[in-house]
Amino acid sequence: MTTNSPLAAEITPDPRLEKRTRRRFSAAEKQRLLTEADALAHGEQGAWLRRNGLYAAQLSDWRKHESHASYPGRSASLPKGYRHREVRGWRGRSQQAP
Asked: What is the pLDDT of residues 47-94, one digit of tens each?
């Protein structure tokens, strides 16, 4: 095989694809998306999530944040380590004997 073949050519990556960033949603966007998701008929949410590039867990987290902030005297953010404690609680329950 010669070095001039097209297979030996170096591939140059597209610089736009090199740096991926996490999407950020404003509070208004989250509220709009939650309202849209709640208005869907049974069985349509999966396709809607795929179209919008979202996961069901994101909606669940946003709802938890929203309900947490709705209590008087609480800030909009959840306590530090909230998600970690929640997962640890699930592990503890799953390891207990029935």
From this structure: 999 999 999 999 999 998 887 766 665 555 555 565 555 555 555 555
Which tokens sit at 41?
């008929």
68 SS3 class: helix
Global pTM reads 0.53
Report the C-alpha gap between 80 and 84 in whole angstroms.
9
Identity of the amino acid at 30: K
Among 77, 65, 7, 72, CA closest to 31: 65
| DSSP symbols for 7-33 | GGSPPPPPHHHHS-------HHHHHHH
Enter the DSSP assignment of 76: S
Please report, in angstroms and rounded to a whole number, the separation of the first and last CA atoms in the chain.
65
Q: Considering only CA atoms, give the Rg of the chain.
A: 22
The answer to whether 65 and 58 are in contact (CB under 8 A) is no
Report the C-alpha gap between 47 and 44 in whole angstroms. Answer: 6
